[in-house]
Amino acid sequence: MRVVGLGGSLATGSKSRAALATALVGAEEAGAETDLLDLRELDLPMYSSEAEPTENVIRMVGILETADGLLWSSPLYQGSISGSFKNALDWLHLPSGNMYLTDKVIGLISVAGGTHGLQAINTMEFCVRALRAWAVPLVVPVQRGGLADEAVQRQLKTLGSEVVRIADHFVTEESPKHEKVCAEAAERLAAAA
Q1: Could you tell me the residue ranges of all domains in the chain?
Q2: How far is Cα 112 from Cα 108, in angstroms, rounded to an integer?
């Protein structure tokens, strides 16, 4: 089982990258191998349908395509996801010729200066659906400065472990009942809150 985190920001001390790293620890503790695709380190060119993908683009897309589960993290900029995060998603014209992440399980995180982090989460959920993937019912909007809070760290690690649990079900079941598994996860997470 391999879970890949995509996100962060172009800032040196990215809080969304730190939140993503914490969620990946939760995935590791649940038994997954993990990779972190840091947007700052990827240094992706601006997407254009006429541009040839760079080596970093091809590497990123290949890693995302072969992952069993994903964690996405973006700061909230101007009421939405960051431009660098959206640009990475725009490059998801996969080497297989399939531009979808069909049946990938994706956990969503945003970091915002206030309580508006759900705006970025909502944008990411639209992208998840457009890419034919499944969003984990638990989402974690983090207020800037909230990463030191033990409850926030616990939520991020729980999100990582839920990606592993649900992705494992999607990978191992012959005829998985994805909607049922996601509904059961939502009920379990609501009871824990």
Answers
A1: 2-192
A2: 13
Asked whether residue 136 carries a pLDDT value surpassing 90, the answer given is: yes
Cα–Cα nearest to 166, from 144, 184, 142: 184
Average pLDDT over residues 60-76: 94
Residue corresponding to tokens 């996969």 = 94
Could you read off the pLDDT of 91-112 as tens digits, one per residue? 987 666 667 888 899 999 999 8
Asked if 70 and 4 touch (Cβ cutoff 8 Å), the reply is yes
Distance between CA 149 and CA 134 in Å, rounded? 28
**CB atoms < 10 A from the CB of 48, how many?**
9
Tokens of 37: 């695709």
Q: Do residues 106 and 72 lie in contact, with contact meaning Cβ atoms separated by under 8 Å?
A: yes
Q: Is 97 left (phi over 0), alpha (psi -120 to 50) or beta?
A: left
CATH code linked to domain 2-192: 3.40.50.360
pTM: 0.88
44: CB partners within 8 A, 6+ apart: 54, 56, 57, 60, 84, 87, 88, 91
The C-alpha R_g of the chain, in whole angstroms, comes to 16
Q: What is the pLDDT of residues 174-186, one digit of tens each?
A: 666 767 777 777 7
Output b/e per residue, 85-119; b: 16+ Cβ within 10 A.
Answer: bbbbbebbebeeeeeebeebbbbbbbbbeeeebeb
